[in-house]
Amino acid sequence: MLLESEYGYLYEEVENINYLLSLNMELPAGYIEDVSRTISTFNKLSKNNNDFLDKTLLNNMMEVEYSYLIDEQGNSLIDIYNKEIKASTLDVEYINSLYNKMILKRNKYIQQQLYKDYFTYYKERNNNNILDKLFNSKVNRVIPNYIKELKSFYNNFEINEKDMLHPFKLNNIRINNQKYKVNFKEDFLENIKIMDSVFGKYLERIYDEGFILIKESNLQEGFFIELPYTKKGFIYSGCIGDIDDYFNTIHEIGHLYHQYITSNVEYKNRCNSLEIKEFVAHSFEALFVRQFSSEKVKKIYEIQQISSVLWNVVLFEFQKIIYRNPNDYLFLEEKERIFVDLLKKYTHSYLYNTNKYDILLGSTWMYESMLFETPFYNCEYIYAQINAVDILNNHQRSLEEIKNNFKNGKNINIKSLEQVL
What we know:
The protein is mainly alpha-helical. The chain is 60% helix and 5% strand. The protein has 19 helices and three strands. A three-stranded mixed sheet has the order 1-3-2. Residues 51-64 have low confidence and may be disordered.
């Protein structure tokens, strides 16, 4: 008989394994047998609720979260979007219609759940209420300064049309031609052993067993998947050869660190809040960059964080407007207008009031997959990256502080956190 905590972690690991397999990820060869046994065990147990300490647990977990995001033909709207966004020629009107359908379906779903709006539903579902309370006033103070800093940074360069599509497409300016090839053991593992020797040994084992996959790619991306039943995790880092590969890889290791320090927490007490997950991962990466990177790389990292905070503020404000007033913004032109206004207020204030680049900027929201897949998730980065900038410049902040605040899952040391925030 499995205890509730064991079953909870088993269920989550099976779900995450299936997700990795759907992405055709190269799972470690030695883990395939474990996967088969785990899924076999899960299937047997699922047929008999009497095997569980908490007989309602299975039923509570069986809701398919995105089952309502299906079109008339039974196709997933998210899958359709992911296919369309990779097309050589983007059908912007079709993408807009997909987005409208998703918003309509999501709003209808949360109304049935008796929530006043989707953002309220999102916050409650993700237990987003701890850092939110601590950070609200700080965000309002910091944002105007960040706008000035980013404007000052970009005003030192001549901006051309090819650089305008996305704040992160300004990489040639921001990264200052910093080429980089990931060397996991030399650049990360040996330094992490200095930060936390026990975690460093654990990370080395995970790496040697094949749970960290770093590959050259045309697309710069990374993600971390928890495997909580076996107390492991899977990291993927797609690298294009510039310094952002370095930042992205250490960020995903930060997520693994969060799972590591909470691996012995009972399932009912684990912290599944996305705001906490991003907060810990960004804290870890900022501590790493502060301790082991050159001054040049630190400056690149800081402007990255500032730019990302402002970009995520744009996405957050854009979504609030659209989700609360969907019928007022059905047409692409209406979405483009408010999106450009937000960009010029936050990330592209150096453009002043010119409309020269409006046509280039207006539809860039379509490339932000989080808007389609995980609405409002980007608000988690706002808090986390403001804190990362503070850690970068405040040598009193430590890894021990992060561990002590978050190692007990939901039982966060809120008083200690208040002192540093």
